[in-house]
């Protein structure tokens, strides 16, 4: 499922004094099977871009192509249903979308909407509940009785139940504690590697970009200022500073260490593991 | 320890219709002017503790003394004047129609005369850097800005204690840094006692003391360095460890002899430099 | 004019209701009986009284729309809630919680944009799960509203709970002994408006009796 934006402009409230252009002549591709991170400040156009991925918004001009479907300003709403089946979006604080009487029914909601029979939908819901690690005994409970972390899992299962080819995640770990955050991110990483799911992650957490993504798109004021590997994005601290972006912790630490003049990293490490490995390498050489 | 401003003894609490205690037998003292971090995973009971201190919940047993006065239904409102709280969701604590009116809300409640109110609102907005936004409606503010307004509302009331109940957890990194910076100056320069309830380990590392709560019990109460030394035990209780500890763990797996005690990032850089020089 | 509101805005206010007004006016004209009969066809008749009634109805409608346009354009919702509080002031003697009612109103107004935002978010989330809002037959449309309304209710209750806690923590304990930050001043224009209004009333009353 390749995704391509071609010269997309998006303007909110076009003919009013509140006119605001959120995307400016944006051309970018999200590679099939990639784990793409979208980075940028609040107001950089991230959430506008995200809503174009499954046709919640249609470009004011330009076109968005997802697989073989092309969406332009004049695409009819009826044609978008098919697209929504292929692109699942987990919104920020997705537990806000829960509404059914039981956990199982809520997870089965989307497959039913997309034409599965109730029996099939329930079967899928059971699989997905298992996949996101919900215990069997909560499936018949009301989703509103669960803890925050479990509600989040139900909501995520509800999107996975659509069996999308592309999974879009908008700050999926916001508000969770460190353990919950780690578990959820691990789960997505597994889905990515085992099911070849294309993942699009919108995040402020540079450590998540470093740990999980293989492609990064940086947005600023509605424009793409970089679309490359995380390694490339984080290789120039001056550039990041200029665009008010942070470094992953390991990279920041490596630069600090480099400032002392005692070590020079050939390749900047992005994660603790990489940092430790290159330190050991350096120490090894030092010993020779 | 000097005269404690908050003294909690043998405090237990269970939510109605729940068997399990949310907090059991908590003992804790907080010194005036101290910055205390309370950390624990979601549902550990740390927010419950904050609400108990402010009298927003009533304990089943145990006592809480704030500035020498025991918390009872009769002293409740006077005690609350000593405490300002900022909560997690920036939207759900914004009462006023715009920024200045929201800051004034607490003052109105205390029946402060209007002339005095005008002065205090202005001063509070200046101290959080939001004076230029005085007329703004909440819909036009970012999460971080709303939390700064909430802090201004607290400052205007001139309490002695500020409790941040996961007040940075819904903010983006910039908003979070902003609020933490502000808290630092309020603690250092203005002498507010700060209690920050959090699971952000970076935020906790700024505190003079860290209290770890796990499943309703207080499991540790010590300097940050000591608490962070527990490393993997922290991870097991659902928390994170500081970056330098993570790096140490990684290095350890390569059989490198790392120091036992907790090092800040700066300390870690220094140690690594020495280590490399020695080679 | 005193309010400095462009006359075009008044006409804009009338436009959406023009069919309703015309319909009512025509009903009055053709069905009212009395006075001189000019024309008659079956149940329909055109009489002098009908025409007079019709023009009255027309004037009333337009006046009501003009007045409410004027109010909403010149006065923020919050000021209206303040005005209500002060108007209901005397009711305090009868233990009506006037202050609380007005605070409730002002908080409700403050949360309107927040809830609109929330609605939009939930609609987007459910659309992504295959709900089509505003499509299909009436049964389908009603069904589509459930996944929107329940989350909205739940989140509103959560918000209300949070808000209540936050208000209590900030020392809110009812209207008694509270001072007010937002106050309104009586200006020269207010006096002018009152005099003009009074004069109009007198003239109208005089005309009526005449």
H and E order of chain C: HHEEHHHHH
Largest interface: A-B, 35 and 33 residues
Q: How many domain units of chain C? A: 2
Biggest sheet of chain B, in brief? 6 strands, mixed
How are the strands of the largest sheet of chain C arranged?
1-2
- Low-confidence residue ranges of chain C: none
The CATH homologous superfamily of the largest domain in chain B is named P-loop containing nucleotide triphosphate hydrolases
* Number of H- or I-type helical stretches of chain C: 7
Q: What oligomeric state do the depicted chains represent?
A: heterotrimer
Explain the layout of strands and helices:
The complex is a heterotrimer of chains A (288), B (279) and C (210).
Chain A: E1 3-12, E2 20-30, E3 35-39, H1 46-52, E4 61-66, E5 69-71, H2 80-86, E6 87-90, H3 103-113, H4 118-131, H5 148-160, E7 166-170, H6 178-195, E8 198-202, H7 206-212, E9 215-220, E10 223-228, H8 230-233, H9 237-242, H10 249-259, H11 272-287
Parallel strand pairs in A: 3-8, 3-9, 6-7, 7-8
Antiparallel strand pairs in A: 1-2, 1-4, 4-5, 9-10
Chain B: E1 4-13, E2 23-31, E3 35-39, H1 46-53, E4 61-66, E5 69-70, H2 76-80, E6 83-86, H3 99-109, H4 114-127, H5 143-156, E7 161-165, H6 173-188, E8 193-198, H7 201-204, E9 209-214, E10 217-222, H8 224-228, H9 232-236, H10 243-252, H11 265-278
Parallel strand pairs in B: 3-8, 3-9, 6-7, 7-8
Antiparallel strand pairs in B: 1-2, 1-4, 4-5, 9-10
Chain C: H1 7-14, H2 18-31, E1 37-41, E2 44-47, H3 48-74, H4 77-87, H5 98-128, H6 138-169, H7 188-209
Antiparallel strand pairs in C: 1-2
In short:
With 288 residues, chain A is of the alpha/beta class. Chain A is 40% helix and 21% strand. Chain A has helices spanning 46-52, 80-86, 103-113, 118-131, 148-160, 178-195, 206-212, 230-233, 237-242, 249-259, 272-287; strands spanning 3-12, 20-30, 35-39, 61-66, 69-71, 87-90, 166-170, 198-202, 215-220, 223-228.
Would you kindly provide a written description of the structure presented here, covering whatever features stand out?
The complex is a heterotrimer of chains A (288), B (279) and C (210). Chain A is an alpha/beta fold. Chain A has a domain at 248-287. Chain A contains 11 helices and 10 strands. In chain A, α3 (103-113) packs across α4 (118-131). The longest helix of chain A has 18 residues, at 178-195. Chain A is globular. The model of chain A has no long low-confidence stretch (mean pLDDT 92). The longest helix of chain B is centred in the middle third of the chain and has 16 residues, at 173-188. In chain B, the strands form 2 sheets. A 6-stranded mixed beta sheet of chain B has the order 6-7-8-3-9-10, with helices on both faces. Chain B has 11 helices and 10 strands. Chain B has 2 domains: 1-82 and 160-223, 3-Layer(aba) Sandwich (Rossmann fold); 88-158, no CATH class. The termini of chain B are far apart. Chain B is an alpha/beta fold and 279 residues long. The longest helix of chain C has 32 residues, at 138-169. Chain C contains 7 helices and 2 strands; from the N terminus they run ααββααααα. In chain C, β1 (37-41) and β2 (44-47) form a beta hairpin. Chain C is flat. In chain C, α2 runs antiparallel to α3 (48-74). Chain C folds into 2 domains: 1-74, no CATH class; 80-170, no CATH class. The A-B interface holds A 41-42, 147-149, 174-180, 204-205, 244, 246, 249-250, 253, 256-257, 260, 262-263, 272-273, 275-277, 279-280, 282-283, 286-287 and B 41-43, 88, 142, 169-170, 172-174, 199, 201, 235, 238-240, 243, 246-247, 250-251, 253-254, 256, 265, 268-269, 272-273, 275-277, 279.
